[in-house]
Amino acid sequence: MKRILVLTSGGDCSGMNAYLKALAKLCKKNGIKLFASMYGFQGLVENSITSFEYDDLGEIQNLGGSVIKTSRSKDFVTQKGFEQALANLKSWNFDCVVVVGGNGSTKGAYDLSIAGVNVLAVPATIDNDLAYTDTTLGYDTACQNALDAVVKIKQTMETCDRGTIIEVMGRHCSDIAVHTAILADADMIITKQKSFESILKRVDDLINFEKKNPLIVVQENILNVNELAKYLEEHTKKEFRATVIGYLQRGGAPTVNDNLLAIQFATKTVELIESAVYNVAVGEIDGKIIATKLKEAIITKQYSKKLLEIFAKYSNTPID
């Protein structure tokens, strides 16, 4: 009987639990013994490893977050911590370690593979910032959560004829911002550093064209949206309100798309394990589930070209 360890690492996202449930079900079906490392790579360092049984999981596929917890382990990235993790893994004699997470987690999986551990990586991050795959687990849910919030805020702002500035998550990748801007019909999207003066010029143009309630979507870590709202209000004499959606985007039940993607990723994971194909990352390209060498999977991206093409064709709004 093969013995497999799974861990979730880095920022949590909806779809992680759906993947864990699907993986546990398929492991049971195929006679694979599944274990879990608590708190991701930190569990490897602390030897916090437990049996993970499908029959004990209930309806976790409908929950956000991760039932086996997640963290950004400071110990694992040290030489001492990494060596301790390797020693603990060796004592358990696992056939494979499945790492579920984003770019940092994929890099950790790659480091383990270099050290001789059989590894599979599964992309799970709201940022959608892994270049080898079109989509990551959690991204679709995060976009839906962001859109739901924007739609509700927009209704109030339209009623009061106020300008609206909304910051969405995404760190170094603009996909959530672009996705949200398309579906919310934003008047302006900001994905890189710009001066308040240049933003004001665009907003003045919108107001001059009788736009009574401009909607601006801003990518995370670009600028201070509260300061921008104050600046625009002072210079346009129109009320502006800023909202940072934040962690609301990460939680809640995964969308249908994320749930299905979780099952597809889990199915591919078990197929690879059964075929003894390791040290690759599972992903999705043009609707097809693929496996990419880990060395190629650690490359990050700042945007999705396909998404920008949709935006360019659909919107009259420039990306700034």
Second CATH tier, the architecture of the largest domain: 3-Layer(aba) Sandwich
What are the segments in which pLDDT stays under 50 over at least 5 consecutive residues? Answer: none
Structural class: alpha/beta
Outline the biggest β-sheet: 7 strands, mixed
Portion of residues within helices: 40-55%
Notes on the protein architecture:
With 320 residues, this protein is an alpha/beta fold. The chain folds into two domains: 3-138 and 254-301, Rossmann fold (3-Layer(aba) Sandwich), CATH 3.40.50; 141-250, 3-Layer(aba) Sandwich (Rossmann fold), CATH 3.40.50.460. 42% of the residues lie in helices and 18% in strands. The protein is built from eleven helices and eleven strands. The protein has a seven-stranded mixed beta sheet with strand order 3-2-1-4-5-10-11, with helices on both faces. β4, α4 (103-114) and β5 (119-123) form a beta-alpha-beta unit. α5 crosses α6. The chain starts with a strand and ends in a 6-residue tail after the last helix. The model has no long low-confidence stretch (mean pLDDT 95).
